[in-house]
C-alpha cells in the first residue's frame, strides 16, 4: 500500500522514478521495488527522505488514506483500548487468541 501511495504522489507531481530517487538520495532500484510492492517494509529513513521530496509528512505517507473504512473503525476509543492492552503486557498473539475465541463463540451462538 505504501508503494502505491508513493507512486501515486510521484506521478501527481510529474516526477519520474529516477527524479524522485535522485532528489531523495535513495537507490532507484529500491524505490522501484517499494512501488511494485516487492519490498513492503521500507525503513523510516527511506520514508522520511521520500516524504520530504513529495512534500508530505512521513505519517501521511505511512497511514491509510483518510476517510477509509479502517479509519472510521479505528477511532480514538479503539486506539486507547489497544494502547491499554499493550501497556498492560498483552501480546499480539494473546490479542489474536482473544479475537479467535470471540469469533468461535459467536459462531457457536448461530
Protein model, in words:
- The protein has helices spanning 2-12, 17-24, 28-35, 44-54, 58-62, 69-73, 76-87, 92-109.
- Helix content is 71%, strand content 0%.
- It folds into two domains: 2-62, Orthogonal Bundle (434 Repressor (Amino-terminal Domain)), CATH 1.10.260; 75-109.
- The model has no long low-confidence stretch (mean pLDDT 85).
- The protein has 110 residues and is mainly alpha-helical.
- The chain is elongated and about 55 Å long.
- Helix 1 (2-12) crosses helix 3 and helix 2 crosses helix 4 (44-54).
- It has eight helices and no strands.
- This is Helix-turn-helix domain-containing protein.
- It comes from Lentibacillus juripiscarius.
- Residues 6-61 form the HTH cro/C1-type domain.
- InterPro entries: Cro/C1-type_HTH (IPR001387), Lambda_DNA-bd_dom_sf (IPR010982), SinR/SinI_dimer_dom (IPR010981), SinR/SinI_dimer_dom_sf (IPR036281), TransReg_Diox_bact_type (IPR050807).
- Keywords: DNA-binding.
What labels describe this entry?
SinR/SinI_dimer_dom_sf, 8 helices, about 110 residues, 434 Repressor (Amino-terminal Domain), mainly alpha, about 0% strand, elongated
- CATH-level-2 architecture of the largest domain: Orthogonal Bundle
Q: Major sheet: size, sense and barrel closure?
A: none
The overall average pLDDT, rounded, is 85
CATH structural fold name of the largest domain: 434 Repressor (Amino-terminal Domain)
Our estimate of the beta-strand percent is: under 5%
Helix content: over 70%
Could you spell the SSE succession in H and E letters? HHHHHHHH
Helical/strand content category: mainly alpha
InterPro entries: Cro/C1-type_HTH, Lambda_DNA-bd_dom_sf, SinR/SinI_dimer_dom, SinR/SinI_dimer_dom_sf, TransReg_Diox_bact_type
Domain Sin: 65-103
Protein name: Helix-turn-helix domain-containing protein
Keywords: DNA-binding
Amino acid at each position: 500500500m505504501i508503494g502505491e501511495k508513493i507512486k501515486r504522489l510521484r506521478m501527481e507531481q510529474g516526477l519520474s522514478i529516477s527524479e524522485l530517487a535522485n532528489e531523495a538520495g535513495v537507490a532507484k532500484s529500491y524505490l522501484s521495488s517499494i512501488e511494485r510492492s516487492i519490498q513492503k517494509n521500507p525503513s523510516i529513513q527511506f520514508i522520511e527522505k521520500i516524504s520530504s521530496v513529495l512534500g508530505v509528512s512521513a505519517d501521511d505517507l505511512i497511514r491509510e488514506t483518510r476517510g477509509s473504512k479502517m479509519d472510521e473503525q479505528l477511532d480514538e476509543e479503539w486506539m486507547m483500548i489497544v494502547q491499554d492492552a499493550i501497556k498492560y503486557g498483552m501480546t499480539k498473539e494473546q490479542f489474536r487468541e482473544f479475537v479467535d475465541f470471540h469469533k468461535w463463540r459467536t459462531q457457536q451462538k448461530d
